[in-house]
Amino acid sequence: MLAEAKRYVKSLAKVGYAQYYGIHFMNKILCPHCGKEVEISQALEHQIKDAVLAKITAQHKKELEETREKALEQSAKKLKEQFELQLKRLEEDKK
After folding, report:
1. Angle at 22 between CA 13 and CA 24, to 5 degrees
2. Counted domains in the chain
């Protein structure tokens, strides 16, 4: 029965009906965006790459924001120390 079904689908593919009706066996699917036939392994590979890229991008943004905040805190601390030192020197000069 399965062999008959495969033969039937092959005959439909020759005429183009299988692609028209979206009937696919084996390891190929139709791209929902362009309608091009794509290997399932390629589709899964792209999904995995997209997911990993999204995760890495989110992690990078988080690390970048943390680094930026840390740099701002350090800069503010250094400016405060410099200001206090200048203020102390001015007070000493007045005496």
Report:
1. 60
2. 1
